[in-house]
Amino acid sequence: MARYQETTQTDTLHLPPAITSRGVAATELRPWGAFTVLEEGRGYKIKRIEVKPGHRLSLQMHHHRSEHWIVVSGTARVTCGELEVLLSNNESTYVPQCTSHRLENPGVIPLVLIEVQNGEYLGEDDIIRYQDDYARTKD
Fold it and tell me: Counting beta carbons within 10 angstroms of the beta carbon of residue 20, is it exposed (0 to 12), middle (13 to 18) or buried (19 or more)?
């Protein structure tokens, strides 16, 4: 009878608290698609966002954060203030804090993008909705 010895080796990299990521969330489903928090730390959050074909997020604004959007696949129609642009993979845009904006997928395949949020407060409740296809605006 063969015998074996189980060994485990743990190499741990200890990072200072300022750059250690915090509580990465599971994927959250929304009527327009889904998002996954990939990493979060003090002053930033990185998400993977997927928007279903023909769907769009609410026209919204954030008091406490700005956002950078990088398209991974699909086509994004971005409204930022008075400007509207189409973006394809490997193209990006910046949404300044306190600016109305909307993201939509006018294409036939899922839109996938990476969002980098920067700000002092990054909670999901920092959303002022002006218009929403899914009746999530406050009266």
Answer: exposed
C-beta of residue 56 within 8 angstroms of C-beta of residue 131: no
> Distance between CA atoms of 14 and 84, rounded to whole angstroms?
44
Q: What whole-number distance in Å separates Cα of residue 96 and Cα of residue 121? A: 14
CA dist list (Å): 69 to 11, 17, 80, 113, 137: 34, 26, 12, 6, 23
What are 95-118's pLDDT values in tens digits?
A: 999 999 999 999 999 999 999 999
Summarize pLDDT for 57-75 with one digit per residue, the tens: 999 999 999 999 999 999 9
| Contact (CB, 8 A) for 131 and 101 | no
8 A C-beta contact, residue 81 and residue 92: no
What's this model's pTM, rounded to 2 decimal places?
Answer: 0.80
Secondary structure of residue 132 in the 3-state scheme: coil
